[in-house]
Amino acid sequence: MKSANNQQFSVVIAEDDPSVRKAVERVLELEGYSVTAVNDGQAALDTILAKAPHAAVLDVSMPFLDGLSVCKELRHRGNRTPILLLTARHEVGDRVAGLDAGADDYLVKPFAVDELLARVRALLRRHTPSSSTATVLQLEDLTLDANRREVHRGSRQIDLTKTEFDLLHILLEQTGIVLSREYLYEHIWGFNFETNSKSLDVYIGYLRRKLEEGGESRLLHTARGVGYVVKPS
């Protein structure tokens, strides 16, 4: 059933398999999204830059530019369009590569239509600004500017990857509250990412080193057996 709420959202689909492309396009249109479909990576990059859609669904394996290259180029240009990658590869290493390239979520083929729609909705929820959401978050000398996507400790600017920034943002939004591993996986990588993988621990390690490399006090703490929390030192 078409949702009136979805009519305000535009989505770009890039998939070189005509049957998959047409099926995804049809499903999203039936849900009320405004859809632009292309069949290669270069066309995807050009269309996203020209149309500024609310989200993009990209196949990993495409002619001219693959989905990972499209993600990397968009992020390199400062484009923050939410991206869902589609791929036949199911290894965790492949998923991590996609997320490191700048994708927001990852869906393995074959997939259920309901799961595709749920992931698109989740992308749009996470990236739709809320008037009640603070754009600058601060804890002691740590400051995060969500609009500029900048992080500082005192006068020192900290360069973070997209995933590191998003992880810190979620933690700072709920300062003092222990966030479970499951919660963080769902909000950073999507609800179907394996929570027994070590990806989260790796990113927490990266983030801690960058936050403390100037000799600053620890703000990001482990709640053993539960998850992670940022709180005053």
UniProtKB/TrEMBL annotation:
SMART domains found in the cross-reference section: REC (SM00448), Trans_reg_C (SM00862)
CDD domains assigned to the protein according to its UniProt record, in alphabetical order: REC_OmpR_PrrA-like, trans_reg_C
Gene3D superfamilies in the record:
3.40.50.2300, 6.10.250.690, Winged helix-like DNA-binding domain superfamily/Winged helix DNA-binding domain
Q: Which GO terms describe its biological process?
A: regulation of DNA-templated transcription
Q: Which residues form the Response regulatory domain?
A: 10-124
Database matches in Pfam families = Response_reg, Trans_reg_C
Q: Name one GO molecular function term.
A: transcription cis-regulatory region binding
Q: Which PROSITE patterns match?
A: OMPR_PHOB, RESPONSE_REGULATORY
All copies of the OmpR/PhoB-type domain together span 134-232
Entry GO CC: cytosol; protein-DNA complex
Any keyword Ribosomal protein? no
Q: Which UniProt keywords apply?
A: DNA-binding, Phosphoprotein, Transcription, Transcription regulation, Two-component regulatory system
Q: What is this protein called?
A: Unannotated protein
